[in-house]
Amino acid sequence: MLDSLAPLSADADVAALLAARRPGHTLPAELYTGQAAWLADCRIMFGRHWISVGVACDVPEPGDVIALDIGPSSIVILRDDNDELRAFHNVCSHRGAKLVPAGRSVVGKLVCPYHQWTYDLDGTLALAPHMGMDFDRALHHLKPVALRDVGGLLFACLSDDPPADIDDLAAVMEPRLAPYDLHDTRVAFEQDLIEDGNWKLTMENNRECYHCASNHPQLSLSFHAADFGYDPDGLTETERAESDALADAYRRHGEHWQAEGLPYEAVEHTVGHATNFRTQRLIIAGLGESQTPDTRAASSVPLGQAGRPWMGDMHLWGHNSWNHVMSDHAVVIAAYPVAPDKTLVRTKWLVHKDAVEGEDYDLDNLTAVWKATNAEDAHLVSLAHRGVSQMGYRPGPYSRFTERALEDFATWYVERMAANGYGTD
Ligand code: 3BY
Ligand code: FES
Ligand code: FE
Question: Which residues belong to the signal peptide in this entry (predicted)?
Answer without folding.
Answer: none
